[in-house]
Design brief:
Family: Belongs to the glutamate-gated ion channel (TC 1.A.10.1) family.
Strand content: 5-15%
Oligomer: single chain
Keywords: Cell membrane, Glycoprotein, Membrane, Receptor, Transmembrane, Transmembrane helix
Helix content: 40-55%
Distance between the termini: 124 Å
Structural class: alpha+beta
GO biological process, one term: detection of stimulus involved in sensory perception
Number of domains: 3
CATH topology of the largest domain: D-Maltodextrin-Binding Protein, domain 2
Number of helices: 12
Order of helices and strands: EHEEHHHHHEHEHEHEEHHH
Membrane topology: Multi-pass membrane protein
Radius of gyration: 36 Å
Number of strands: 8
CATH superfamily of the largest domain: Periplasmic binding protein-like II
Organism: Diploptera punctata
C-alpha cells in the first residue's frame, strides 16, 4: 500500500536498509530504538544456596583435610609420645575430632594441651580457625541480608545452556528475513498471539526469550506495574539493529521539511521526554498489579530464623540421643545386676 501510493505516511521503527531507502525518505528521528534479544533477568539467589556456595569446593575440601589432619596429629601426639606425654585428653580419636570441630566453631576444648609441640600445633590451628570463621561470619551476615543474583545471560550460547525456548509472533518471519536472524531457527519455538504477550512471558514466566524493541519492552514493563525495570527488562549484550523511530515518507513528499521543522523544535524543547514520562506514568496508574522488585533490606530477626531452626533441631537431637543413651545404660545396668545375681545363685548352689 505504501509503494502504490495508498499511504502517505508510514510510522514506527524503520530500519535503514535498501528496501526502504530506495523508495522512501527518513525525516528527523524522534528517538533511536534498538532491536535486541530480551531474556529473563537473573533472579535473587536463595540464602541457603548462597551460603553453601560461600566458599569454593576447593576451600571446603581443604578445610576438611585440615580438620582430619589436625585431629589425627592430636591423636598421634597423645598416644605415641616421643619422650613422655602428660596430655591424656585426646587418647580417643573421637575426642580429637570433637575438639578440632569445636575450635573450628569457636567453642573451647575440654582440656588444654601441656606439651610444647602439642601447644604449637594447637595455636597454629586456632589461628587458622579464627581466620576462616571471621571470613565466614562476615560473608554469612552479608548474604543473609542480600544473597545476590544469578548469572546474567549475555550471549546466545548462554541461552542455549539455559534451555530457553524462542518466543515467536506473527511478524517474526518478517523480522528474521529483514535482519537476517537465521541463528534463531535452531531453537524450539512457541507462537504467541501478540508481541506484548510474548514479551510479558519472557519477563515473568522466564521460560522463553524473544526479539523486541527496547522501548516496547520498557512500555510492557510499565503496563505490568513494574517499578524497577532493571530487575525485569534484560537483554543480551549484542544489539541486533539500531532503528530510528519516526515517520517514513515517499520520495519527494512535501511533508518532509514540515516534519523536520516540527520534530527539531520538539526535541530541542524537551517535549519528547515529557511526553514519554507522561505515557509511562499513566500506564503505571492503569496497571492491574504492581510487581515490586526488592532491593537491599535491613537486617532483622527474620534473617536469623534458619539459625534458630538449626539450633532447635540440635537441641531435639541432643535430647533424643541422651534419652537413648539413658535407656541403653539402664538396660546394661539391669543386665549386669541380673548376671551378678545369677553368679551368686550358682555359688550358693555349689
Amino acid at each position: 500500500m505504501f509503494h502504490t501510493g495508498q499511504m502517505d505516511i508510514l510510522a514506527g521503527s524503520m530500519p535503514c536498509v535498501d528496501a526502504f531507502v530506495t523508495y522512501a525518505d527518513f525525516p528527523v528521528a524522534i528517538f533511536i530504538d534498538t532491536l535486541e534479544f530480551i531474556v529473563p533477568c537473573p533472579r535473587p539467589m536463595t540464602k541457603t544456596q548462597k551460603i553453601i556456595t560461600l566458599f569454593s569446593l576447593a576451600t571446603w575440601t581443604s578445610m576438611m583435610c585440615v580438620l582430619i589432619c589436625t585431629s589425627s596429629l592430636f591423636w598421634l601426639m597423645s598416644n605415641i609420645p616421643v619422650r613422655k606425654s602428660n596430655f591424656t585428653g585426646f587418647n580417643l580419636l573421637a575426642q580429637c575430632f570433637s575438639a578440632a570441630w569445636s575450635v573450628l566453631l569457636g567453642v573451647s576444648v575440654p582440656q588444654m594441651p601441656f606439651s610444647l609441640r602439642t601447644r604449637c600445633l594447637f595455636i597454629i590451628y586456632v589461628w587458622y580457625c579464627f581466620a576462616i570463621s571471621t571470613v565466614f561470619q562476615a560473608f554469612f551476615t552479608s548474604f543473609l541480608v542480600e544473597p545476590g543474583y544469578e548469572i546474567q545471560l549475555k550471549t546466545l550460547d548462554d541461552v542455549v545452556r539455559a534451555g530457553l525456548v524462542l518466543g515467536s509472533y506473527d511478524i517474526m518471519e518478517f523480522v528474521k528475513a529483514v535482519f537476517e536472524l537465521y541463528e534463531v531457527d535452531y531453537f524450539e519455538q512457541t507462537l504467541y498471539d501478540d508481541l506484548a504477550e510474548c514479551v510479558r512471558n519472557v519477563m515473568f514466566e522466564r521460560n522463553t526469550f524473544s526479539g523486541t524493541l527496547a522501548y516496547f519492552a520498557s512500555y510492557v514493563a510499565s503496563l505490568s506495574g513494574v517499578t524497577d525495570e532493571s530487575k525485569i527488562v534484560c537483554f543480551l549484550d549484542d544489539t541486533l539493529f539500531t532503528l530510528p523511530f519516526g515517520p517514513l515518507l515517499p520520495k519527494g513528499s512535501p511533508l518532509l521539511n514540515v516534519f523536520n521543522a516540527h520534530f527539531r523544535q520538539c526535541l530541542e524543547g524537551g517535549l519528547l521526554q515529557v511526553y514519554w514520562s507522561k505515557i509511562k506514568h499513566d500506564v503505571k496508574l492503569k496497571a492491574d498489579q504492581m510487581h515490586e522488585q526488592g532491593g537491599y533490606v535491613a537486617f532483622n530477626l527474620n534473617h536469623l530464623l534458619p539459625i534458630f531452626f538449626v539450633l532447635i533441631f540440635g537441641y531435639i537431637l541432643s535430647v533424643t540421643v541422651f534419652f537413648f543413651e539413658f535407656l541403653i545404660k539402664l538396660w546394661e545396668s539391669k543386665k549386669c545386676y541380673t548376671s551378678r545375681r545369677f553368679q551368686r545363685y550358682i555359688l550358693r548352689s555349689k
